[in-house]
Amino acid sequence: MTPHAIKVACSNCNMRELCMPVGLSEPELQRIDDLIGTRRKVKRNETLFRNGEKFSSLYAIRTGFFKTCMATEDGRDQVTGFQMAGEIMGLDGIVNDFHSCDAVALEDAEVCVMPFDKIEELSREVTSLQHHVHKIMSREIVREHGVMLLLGSMRAEERLAAFLLNLVQRLHARGFSQSELILRMTREEIGSYLGLKLETVSRTFSKFVEEGTVEVKQRHVRILDTAALQQLVNNQQACH
Amino acid sequence: MTPHAIKVACSNCNMRELCMPVGLSEPELQRIDDLIGTRRKVKRNETLFRNGEKFSSLYAIRTGFFKTCMATEDGRDQVTGFQMAGEIMGLDGIVNDFHSCDAVALEDAEVCVMPFDKIEELSREVTSLQHHVHKIMSREIVREHGVMLLLGSMRAEERLAAFLLNLVQRLHARGFSQSELILRMTREEIGSYLGLKLETVSRTFSKFVEEGTVEVKQRHVRILDTAALQQLVNNQQACH
DNA sequence: CGCCGCATTGACGTTCGTCAAGTCTAGTGG
DNA sequence: CCACTAGACTTGACGAACGTCAATGCGGCG
User: Fold this and answer.
1) Of B143, B175, B210, the domain-final residue
2) Any CB–CB contact under 8 A between A151 and chain B?
């Protein structure tokens, strides 16, 4: 909750290949550094922002892992996404000047706070930043299209396969293994994201293990047969 | 398919209160007029753009009704949204410079073609346009969060109720009735959007009719008890 | 008038949710 | 060091919701 007044620079951040400054030239990078007002540490289970809070900034994840979720009036919540280092959060707040979901750290994390008025100001001058901001928002729209496809037309196995492949692919882009990963979220959170109950998630994991597709030991997952998972995601009609 | 070289102006469009120029001042409105290169007519069942096509423009709907859908590799497609007059299409294309979904007219339509490079150029100069573009993209992200919630945690009745209320609310903002609407899409398309099969959509309509909540005659729907539908959307836990 | 696409309805099957019991693990305190 | 506990996870039995398949109805259009 306490903003840290540590001045930092994108230009020497090790996430710069994956984060806000993607595709910017060296001089542009220098200007982007002004964007980041402060960094902020968020402990596990703490929220970065909440539904209803005033929107003022976007957040770039430096370290750690987040979930975003919408709370329904009746107390349940739907996880709308999982975010890792280099990804941007807070885009939901722009429309109404209020956040419409919660961002919760699933492990101790640190984010760069980017005041949105500064982003708009700077992207009026730096064309490539402007375009990059548009791309980030468009990417989120396309990602959500994918989730809609998943929720609207896939069966449990297909959903979990798509989820695992997506996670491991994003982790791989960050230098982690292509086949091993540690889940930062509970079965219930996975289920919420995938539109399934936690028991179904658990059973589906067990089924993958039986079939020799993955090894699962609590939150540690090793993918043994990527092709089999990929097959599930593509060949949705196999059930006929 | 044939672009019409009709020069038109936002400043005297009757959709200007709902479309691109929302919240712009009179002099700003003048400048926005330059945005619209051409208009384009799209006949029923024709596509405005397709998955894989090069992205160059956003489209504002002047008249008519569209669906956007993603085709899966195995031939099925998932409807990701329905769009009506004043709404913007094509945002999915910005990330990769290629469209990632199809836009299909469900009735004869006309759209304003807005070259995206012009939008970026102009929004570097007109601050309020810049902010408006950001809002439009953020609104789409929030809308999709809502769909994810619907697909991930609602039952068939709740989904259809939310769908009808959303449609009628948007139509009402355009001067149509609060209680009557004509569906421009088939049961199958509704089902695809809501993650249900067409038979389930049909049965759910029939159930609403039995309960006296709506009247349905083919594609003509009259909502008799808005509160009952609203109740369904909110009180998801009623099944306990 | 007859055809075709869309919609409705019924019977049946599958998938997933629900409820409940039981297991595993990490963290705590004696 | 080990017993204890709480939270997360697994597994089974059962039922509800929705999908599937198939027959039938309806309405618009050539």
Assistant:
1) B143
2) yes
- Chain A nearest C-alpha distance from B211 (Å): 24
Among chain A residues, CA nearest to B235: A74
Contact status, residue A11 vs residue A33, Cβ threshold 8 Å: yes
Structural domain of residue B193, as residue ranges?
154-238
Q: What is the CATH number of the domain that holds B139?
A: 2.60.120.10
**B221 and B138 assigned to the same domain:** no
What sign has the CA pseudo-torsion A20, A23, A26, A28? Answer: negative
Chain segment A7-36, per-residue pLDDT in tens: 578 988 989 999 999 989 989 998 888 888
Distance of alpha carbon A235 from alpha carbon A232, whole angstroms: 5
**For chain B, what is the mean pLDDT?**
92
DSSP H/E element including B31: helix B26-32
Q: Is A44 on the interface with B (CB under 8 A)?
A: no
Check A138 against B135: CB less than 8 A apart: no
**Three-state SS letters, A173-226:** HCCCCCCEEECCCCHHHHHHHHCCCHHHHHHHHHHHHHCCCEEEECCEEEECCH
Q: Give the end of a domain, one of B110, B143, B176.
A: B143
Q: Which residue of B has its CA nearest to A142?
A: B92
Query: Which pLDDT value is given to residue A238?
Result: 46
Task: Retrieve residue A124's tokens.
Answer: 């009026």
Model confidence at B240: pLDDT above 80: no
Q: Which residue has the tokens 């730096």?
A: A126
For chain A, say whether B153 makes contact (Cβ under 8 Å).
yes
Asked if the model's pLDDT at residue A37 lies above 90, the reply is no
For B:169-198, CB contacts with A below 8 A are 192-195
Residue A240 structure tokens: 């006929």
Best CA proximity match to B36, nearest among B20, B52, B22: B20
* Average pLDDT score over residue span A204-214: 97
Q: Where are the beta strands (DSSP E) in B54-190?
A: 57-71, 77-84, 88-89, 102-115, 180-182
Give SS3 for A18. coil
Contact flag, residue A82 CB and nucleic strand D, below 7 A: no
Share of chain B above pLDDT 70, in %: 94
> For residue A232, what is the enclosing H or E element?
helix A226-234
B74 vs A: CB within 8 A: yes
Q: Residue A201 in contact with residue A187, Cβ under 8 Å? A: yes
What DSSP assignment string belongs to A89-141? E-GGGTTTSB--SEEEEEEEEEEEEEEHHHHHHHHHH-HHHHHHHHHHHHHHH
Q: Is B179 a domain residue?
A: yes
pTM metric for this prediction: 0.94
